[in-house]
Amino acid sequence: MKSIRRGAGTAQRYLVSLYFAGVITQFFLVGLGLFGMKPGNTIEDAHSLDAHREFGWALTEFGGLLLLSATLLAWQKPLRSRVGLYVVLCLLGFPLQPLLAIGGEHHPLVGMFHPVNALVLLGLSGFLTRRAWKLAARGQTTTALRSGFGESVDTATPAR
What we know:
The chain has helices at about 1-35, 50-75, 80-105, 110, 115-140. It is an all-alpha fold. The protein has one domain. Helix 1 runs antiparallel to helix 2. The relative contact order is 0.14.
């Protein structure tokens, strides 16, 4: 079971890195789509936004599912920072992000949170990516340097 958890932890590190890169790509795709809109088009019927929509759906649905699966298989302690933050990331991506986009088509007060949530996804996935690679470089396999909420965690075991 340890080898499965170790492999899942490695997969988690690469998947969160790809997720972070995907969120950055989404910002480029939405910019390309918005500035590529034809005069008279609305956001709902703009085909220039199709790449943003389709890639975002694949990123949050499949990328989030893979990341969540790896996180749950790795089941690293402390749970609050090593599992909890990844679960939050996946829930902010799917189902929340698509719901904000769909709701925003008819209710601008809902849609205004779609880009705000995207910034949260960018920050959280960037934080988790940085921390995952820092922990891997230090050879820590079971705990985080910091939990992400301010308290220090010092029960790491070096990899052998």
